[in-house]
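User: quick one, sequence for these tokens?
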């Protein structure tokens, strides 16, 4: 095992926390490259710069797979037991950062893979509910068919047709620099079906060479409203 891999495994273990002992878990974290989160100018992102309740997008573990980065403004639930569509159990340890309020999730909806594109997004985090009552506050909601996820509890499904939580992105927080790295995923990955469904569209938006290319080194964090021209509200 190379030293970098070893460090990566240690980092993921820290991100998962010391709590991963209580429940039987049969789905382990999947480690990818340790990638630094940077701002749009390429400077290391500092956690304190993340505005609570705002949607941020970065790409991980592939150059074309979008993820949400959220500061929920208060500590998340800890040690949430979750289950994938195929019946595998796993345990999400909770948020990271100074207040344990920062979370990362794949932004690919677990129902029919709706995701934020540069042109339009049907899925995002919402701090407030809608007057229609379709959407609860403090949830990640997909307006395609109204799947709803709880970002403070490992993106567990709160409603709608989604058969499993959003895949969690494992984040490593460095208190000294206030910086963040992505190191892996936890939960039901959908990247293969995502690529199969959207290969053509992804090639247009990201270039065919980058579509399945692993993120490496650094990944830029952008506000959703900058990344995407139109956000669908429901
Ligand atoms: S694709 Fe998100 S609810 Fe159907």
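Assistant:
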């Amino acid at each position: 095992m190379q030293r970098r891999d070893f460090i990566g495994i240690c980092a993921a273990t820290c991100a998962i926390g010391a709590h991963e002992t209580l429940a039987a878990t049969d789905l382990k974290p999947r480690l990818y490259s340790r990638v630094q989160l940077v701002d749009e100018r390429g400077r290391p992102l500092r956690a304190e710069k993340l505005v609570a309740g705002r949607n941020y997008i970065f790409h991980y573990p592939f150059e074309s797979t979008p993820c949400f980065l959220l500061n929920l403004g208060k500590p998340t639930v800890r040690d949430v037991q979750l289950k994938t569509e195929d019946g595998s159990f796993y345990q999400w340890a909770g948020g990271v950062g100074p207040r344990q309020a920062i979370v990362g999730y794949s932004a690919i909806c677990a129902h029919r893979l709706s995701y934020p594109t540069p042109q339009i997004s049907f899925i995002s985090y919402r701090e407030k509910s809608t007057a229609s009552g379709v959407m609860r506050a403090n949830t990640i909601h997909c307006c395609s068919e109204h799947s709803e996820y709880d970002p403070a509890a490992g993106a567990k499904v709160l409603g709608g047709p989604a058969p499993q939580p959003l895949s969690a992105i494992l984040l490593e927080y460095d208190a000294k620099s206030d910086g963040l790295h992505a190191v892996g995923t936890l939960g039901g990955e959908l990247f293969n079906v995502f690529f199969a469904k959207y290969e053509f569209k992804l090639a247009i938006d990201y270039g065919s060479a980058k579509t399945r290319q692993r993120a490496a080194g650094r990944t830029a964090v952008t506000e959703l409203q900058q990344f995407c021209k139109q956000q669908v509200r429901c």
